[in-house]
Amino acid sequence: MGRIILTGDRPTGKLHLGHYVGSLRNRVLLQNQGNYDRMFVFIADVQALTDNADNPEKVRQNVIEVALDYLSCGLDPEKVTIFIQSRIPELHEMTQFFSNLVTVQRLQRNPTVKAEMVMRGFGSETEDDNRRGLPVGFFTYPISQAADICAFKSTTVPVGEDQEPMLEQCREIVRSFNGTYKCDVLVEPDILLPDNLACRRLPGTDGKAKMSKSLGNCIYLSDDPKEVERKVKGMFTDPGHLRVEDPGKVEGNPVFTYLDAFVEEGDFERFWPDYANMEELKDHYRRGGLGDMKCKKFLLNVLNDRLEPIRARRHTYEQDIPGVYGILKKGSEAAREVAAKTLYEMKEAMRINYFEDAALIAAQAEAYRNK
After folding, report:
1. CATH class of 225-316
2. What pTM, to 2 d.p., does this model score?
3. CATH code for 4-202+321-361?
4. Quick check: 240 and 258 in contact, CB under 8 A?
5. pLDDT tens string 246-268
6. What would the DSSP string read from start to end of 224-266?
7. Is 59 in contact with 49 (CB distance < 8 Å)?
């Protein structure tokens, strides 16, 4: 079996720069390199509903936003299968089967689940009236993610480093299923992280550890130049760098983290020829004499240069929304065929393929005839 890539995003809002450098940019690179057998990219609307069950319209409206972001970033539906999670009912059957192989205690130890619970305000209803109880669907979404990955026998999952605990949970489920049913139906996936460390967890514009839609500290791929300018100018920097002449810190400074994530060869020559590279710029900032606004202006030029072709492609796709839905429908039908084949193999291994097992039927018929 060759290399099969799968990755996706929850449709709870438009995608932002954290999504782009953490995974989207890498997906397009992988697509264009073509060194894989098949790539699946999906919109995880079922998982979005685990903490948006009371607001399904939010999820419904954002499916098209995520699809537009995918296409505007350069994902090509002729090379990549783009689908909607809820259109693949086989995934939900797999989730149920996998749930028998995972303990409650194991899910409680999952670092990603614990972090998401805190961020989204889930907790015991008796602890705080302002916090609602934890939905079972949200608690078990690592199992749903495992089904997404296993359904397509994915070997490679390009995501941010915060998803590594989810991948490990998936590997455990694969080993448990194959071991329990003495088969090799499922495949253990590997995570594919960006080579650039700055891309693995892009901080929010407010300096918080992670750019997040729920925290409101994002720069969206669809933001227009004025909105990007407003957000960049308001970015958190080194709080100790009060005057231009003060020495500044680049470690933990979001402006420099973003520059590390986005600056490419030729950017200094085009936008800030006073410096040859990032190290020269950082050295000047560290020793003092360089203002934050100059650094932000450079970052703004770099970001708009990257975002302009994305905006242009998005505008084109926005003129044909029925066509975008057509891409999603076609991709969902193709993805379902693959998932159905894997589910069939799983049921064979589990020996619950009753109607297809002619030997079982014949043997039982013979046994009852001989009673």
Report:
1. mainly alpha
2. 0.90
3. 3.40.50.620
4. no
5. 999 999 999 999 999 999 999 99
6. -HHHHHHHHHT----TT--STTS----TT-HHHHHHHHH--TT
7. yes
